[in-house]
From TrEMBL:
Residues 25-335 form the Aminoacyl-transfer RNA synthetases class-II family profile domain. It is found in: Cytoplasm. GO terms for biological process: histidyl-tRNA aminoacylation. Keywords: Aminoacyl-tRNA synthetase, ATP-binding, Cytoplasm, Ligase, Nucleotide-binding, Protein biosynthesis. GO terms for molecular function: ATP binding; histidine-tRNA ligase activity. The keyword ATP-binding applies. L-histidine binds at E84, N85, T86, R114, Q128, E132, R259, Y263, Y264. Belongs to the class-II aminoacyl-tRNA synthetase family. This is Histidine--tRNA ligase. It holds the Pfam family tRNA-synt_His. Transmembrane segments: none annotated. HAMAP family: His_tRNA_synth.
Length: 435
């Protein structure tokens, strides 16, 4: 016997019972995105490596250590499995000149890939849902995206998430802050860990985002970027805050919030939770006004966010939020295989009428007993069983047996004509399937 193969570590199968939760979340996301007039975009999983080096930043952890990159054997191109999707969306918008007639509101969903140690809510293949608004410069669209995320949390029943805000200002403001930041950390170099010392002159802003508790004091004492912001940057930040305040959105200003990607400016934000341990960020984003030009497009402002699907579903499960389970409306009980032509014709008519139908099918041991079929019908969650017994078929009828009404399963039943399925099919939709 051949050795059993297994999935790559950190790249997980999503089996039907769990996939139902994903479908529920994705369906809710589609509905919320439509309410805010965001349109779906789909980009390739594989991109040129240069896209992420240029877009994310050469000295970021993602580019330095986490990307799955390889050389195409046919033509020698350097390619990468996408580690995030904002750079891909910007590349697509630029390549296809989507901003020629004005701004665009876009959203996406799909797998991303980073080579890191798998842990709860953090995998090598993970999935993101993101929203990007390109071509809009004002804090109103920053606020719109935050309100969109807040609407999603409400729709899926999440309560234990909080919003943190910061502003990274503009490049000249960050440059002035950078000089003071480096000077501060140089004076306390003995308190920096290996990552901190490595980033000191290449990307000192990222030191502020350290998760090392031993560096908390030196980071808290560091110069704050918000103190270096000019009038325009402060006006943008205060405009965002005014809109959030008017909508009753609670938030805290976190001066240490810098995000891990180089392309951000002005607004940055995260929705975080304490329920998932170290992996507490469930959604994050900000403004990236220079990225489109950096990708070779005509300069245009942009802002967006991405949420981790695995983390959001973990939080849904942790909070015990109700998730509807997809179940059939009816289950077909078939005592005799000879009835299958009539059974399948009837079931197709029911499906055409919009019902969700599950048919009992034969295994290697046959169809099984009438009793065992009813047990499976009940376990399926269906509200009704359709019984295609010999006596019923001889009369041109089928028995419709309730599995959910009355003090016990199977409390009521009736017969219906097989010649007039369209007339009685709507009766099976009068009640919602159980969740």
């Amino acid at each position: 016997m051949a050795d059993k193969l297994s999935a790559v570590k950190g790249m997980n199968d999503i089996l039907p019972a769990e996939s139902a939760r994903w479908e529920w979340l994705e369906g809710t996301v589609r509905e919320i995105m439509a309410r805010y007039a965001y349109r779906n975009i789909r980009t390739p999983i594989v991109e040129h490596t240069a896209l992420f080096v240029r877009g994310i930043g050469e000295v970021t952890d993602i580019v330095e250590k986490e990307m799955y990159s390889f050389e195409d054997k046919l033509n020698g191109e350097k390619l990468t499995l996408r580690p995030e999707n904002t750079a891909s969306v910007v590349r697509a918008v630029t390549e296809h000149s989507l901003l020629y007639d004005g701004g665009k509101r876009l959203w996406y969903t799909g797998p991303m890939f980073r080579h890191e140690r798998p842990q709860r809510g953090r995998y090598r293949q993970f999935h993101q849902i993101g929203a990007e608004a390109l071509g809009f410069a004002g804090p109103d669209v920053d606020a719109e995206l935050i309100l969109l995320a807040a609407s999603l949390w409400k729709a899926i029943g999440l309560t234990d998430v909080r919003l943190e805000l910061n502003s990274l200002g503009q490049p000249a403001e960050r440059a002035a802050h950078r000089i003071e930041l480096i000077a501060h950390f140089e004076q306390h170099a003995d308190q920096l860990d290996e990552d901190g010392r490595r980033r000191l002159h290449s990307n000192p802003l990222r030191i502020l985002d350290t998760k090392n508790p031993a560096m908390k004091a030196v980071v808290e004492a560091a110069p704050k970027l918000i103190d270096f912001l000019g009038a325009a940057s402060l006006a943008h930040f205060n405009g965002l805050r005014a809109i959030l305040d008017a909508n009753g959105v609670e938030y805290t200003i976190n001066p240490r919030l810098v995000r891990g990607l180089d392309y951000y400016n002005l607004t940055v934000f995260e929705f975080v939770t304490d329920r998932l341990g170290a992996q507490g960020t469930v959604c994050a984003g900000g403004r990236y006004d220079d990225l489109i030009a950096q990708m070779g497009g005509k300069p245009a402002p942009a802002v967006g966010w991405a949420m981790g699907v695995e983390r959001v579903l973990e939080l849904v499960k942790e909070q015990g939020a109700a998730v509807p389970a997809p179940v059939p409306d009816v289950y077909a009980v078939v005592p005799d295989a000879a009835a299958m032509p009539v059974v399948l014709r009837t079931l197709q008519q029911l499906r055409d009428a919009g019902l969700r139908v599950q048919m009992h099918a034969a295994t290697a041991d046959g169809l099984g007993s009438f009793k065992s079929q009813f047990k499976k019908a009940d376990a399926s969650g269906a509200r009704y069983a359709l019984v295609f017994g010999g006596d019923e078929l001889a009369r041109g009828e089928v028995t419709v047996k309730s599995l959910r009404d009355g003090p016990e399963a199977g409390g009521a039943q009736r017969t219906e004509s097989l010649a007039d399925v369209a007339a009685w099919a709507p009766k099976l939709q009068t009640l919602q399937s159980p969740t």
